[in-house]
Amino acid sequence: MKKILSVILFWGLVWSQLQAIDSSEMIVISTDDSQTAYVISTIKKITFESGVMTLHTTSSNSNHNLLTTKKIIFSLVNTADNNTITEDLNVRVYPNPVENTINLSGNIDQKSVHIYSIHGERFETNKNSYNGITTINVSSFPTGIYILQIGNQSIKFTKK
């Protein structure tokens, strides 16, 4: 039961954010180490019932028994809880958790930056840049968990 709740909570955290990234994948790995990969943009919905996760895709439905699911991996998503560096963009995001202002350092000048709540709500992001550091004021955001999307990479951060 704890495993099922963890899967549901994690999926709720990243679902709406990942749908916007066509190249992202969700990989389901079973206890026998078999793997099934799904392109996120083809998943219409996911349902959980009686210990079974059903992925409803544009082409078919697939069932996965959660008791025999070892792990679920989402590509292009970094969910580190501490200072985070995205490899492709070489961006450092700090502090995490944040109270008022989140800092981004690295190559993001031409990248789009969006922030989403775990419920999929998009928040306004007014970014300011000075000396290679971009800041975003999140002081008005409610306490909670957010997804920061920089280009095609996503990072989870916590607002205190």
List the helices and strands and how they pair.
Elements: H1 2-19, E1 25-30, E2 35-39, E3 43-49, E4 52-57, E5 61-65, E6 69-74, E7 77-78, E8 84-86, E9 91-94, E10 101-105, E11 113-117, E12 122-123, E13 127-130, E14 133-137, E15 144-150, E16 153-159
Parallel strand pairs: 7-16
Antiparallel strand pairs: 1-2, 1-6, 3-4, 4-5, 8-9, 9-10, 10-14, 11-12, 11-15, 13-14, 15-16
Describe this protein's structure:
It contains 1 helix and 16 strands. With 160 residues, it is mainly β. The chain has 2 domains: 74 residues, SH3 type barrels; 82 residues, Immunoglobulin-like (Sandwich), CATH 2.60.40. The strands form 4 sheets. It has a 5-stranded mixed β-sheet with strand order 7-16-15-11-12, covered by helices on one side. Strands 8-9-10-14-13 form a 5-stranded antiparallel β-sheet, with no helix packed on it. A hairpin with a 4-residue loop joins strand 1 and strand 2. The longest helix is centred in the first third of the chain and has 18 residues. The two termini are 29 Å apart.
Q: Compute the number of structural domains.
A: 2
Q: Stretches where pLDDT falls below 50 for ≥5 residues?
A: 16-23, 77-87
Structural class: mainly beta
Describe the sheet with the most strands: 5 strands, mixed
Oligomer: single chain
Global outline: elongated
CATH topology of the largest domain: Immunoglobulin-like
The percent range for strand residues is over 45%
Total strand segments? 16
CATH architecture of the largest domain: Sandwich
Tally the helices.
Answer: 1
Question: Can you give the helix content as a percent range?
Answer: 10-25%
Give, in order, the helices and strands.
Answer: HEEEEEEEEEEEEEEEE
Overall average pLDDT: 76
Report the CATH C-level class of the largest domain. Mainly Beta
- CATH homologous superfamily of the largest domain? Immunoglobulins
Our Rg estimate from Cα atoms comes to 17 Å
Spatial ordering of strands, largest sheet? 7-16-15-11-12
User: What's the N-to-C terminus distance?
Assistant: 29 Å
